[in-house]
Known about the structure:
Blueprint: E1 3-7, H1 11-22, E2 26-29, H2 39-45, E3 49-51, H3 54-60, E4 63-66, E5 85-88, H4 94-97, H5 101-104, H6 110-117, E6 122-125, H7 132-135, E7 149-154, H8 157-170, E8 173-176, H9 199-208
Parallel strand pairs: 1-2, 1-4, 2-3, 4-5, 5-6, 7-8
Antiparallel strand pairs: 6-7
Bound molecules: NADP nicotinamide-adenine-dinucleotide phosphate.
Amino acid sequence: MPTIGLIGSGHIGSQIARLAVANGYDVVLSNSRGPETLSGLVAELGPRARAATPAEAAKAADVAVVTIPLRNYLKVPVEPLAGKVVIDTNNYYPERDGHIGALDDELTTTAELLQAHLPKSKVVKAFNHIYAASLTQDGQPAGTRNRRALAIAGDDRSAKMTVTRLLDQFGFDTVDAGALQEGWRFQRDTPGYGPRRTADELRKDLAAAERYAHH
Ligand SMILES: NC(=O)c1ccc[n+]([C@@H]2O[C@H](COP(=O)([O-])OP(=O)(O)OC[C@H]3O[C@@H](n4cnc5c(N)ncnc54)[C@H](OP(=O)(O)O)[C@@H]3O)[C@@H](O)[C@H]2O)c1
């Protein structure tokens, strides 16, 4: 099984790690304070999990997940993620992250910023519009009627297939919102941001979304 490397192991990172371990993946966790601060989570997750620095987690990853406060995205290690699928869960909250002009003006999107920082990686936006707790509550087996769906966006087809398979294993259908620049359709303050949605409902939400700069 591939290794999932987590850059960030907070609310979302720890939940993705739980789902990954439950589905047979190895996980390497990391945070800003150092691996020793993750010993409790590693103990909970068991032998498939270990903690390391962000650079080591990135290096060990077959698939990486960047799940940190957006303001820190320029600290994500670049070289060890080259050529890899990188899932971006991040959202922009100016009160937490400080103002980023290009996002305030919606000249770009959060995941496009990460992609620009990681030019050789294949960034896929995912997991940003579901509450952390719901990740381990809402998953259901493939084929379940009215299964919850999650949206993805990305520029690399095969990377999106990898993430779609992962979501399916974790218990969710996938709705492909298109290229990375379409990621705003499920950013904060859009209809699909937060609530439980089936694939059909989520497609309608994506179509109805408006950019906040236009409000
Ligand atoms: N919470 C949710 O329900 C939710 C849902 C969807 C998306 N999101 C988004 O996903 C991202 C993560 O959210 P969260 O709620 O999981 O945040 P969180 O609980 O605050 O966790 C953030 C994690 O990132 C780590 N971190 C911070 N700077 C880092 C760096 N430079 N390198 C490596 N790790 C770093 C933190 O480590 P330390 O603790 O050591 O600083 C912590 O483990 C945010 O952008 C958020 O908007 C959150």
